[in-house]
Amino acid sequence: MTARSIRRSLIATGLVAAAATLAFTPSASASVPLRAAAQDEAALTSIALGSTGRLDANGAAVFVPVTLTCSKATEFDVTVKVAQAVGETMRAGTTVRRVTCAAATQEVRIAVIPVERPFARGVAFGVVSASSCDPGPACTTLVDEHRFDLAR
To answer: What is the pLDDT of residue 102?
Structure first.
């Protein structure tokens, strides 16, 4: 075996393990958006992963809808992870994107690029998370995770 093939095997094994962890982590949220405990203080009050992602470029990307509600204008990073089992293979990708949220509810579409194999139509598992920090030590992290459909 060459160093390159060993490295590819290790990377593939790591991706499968990470995606399996994502896919089999119990979800307390189901498909209900989580709300901050101290809504009066937190700028980000809810986050929700949409029920259908849109495939693009023959599976080279999937656009994931994320609904955010903010109590005041703020800016923060949103992380979206997608994992999908197709046959005996695992497809996975993660994107972190800076989002500006108005003092309202809004939807953003975040592109996730698969690491090794293209995403395909069917069922996938997604996790969206974001942390909003106000001045001082108070930070609120919200997460929504559930299965969703990938469609063209």
So the answer is: 87
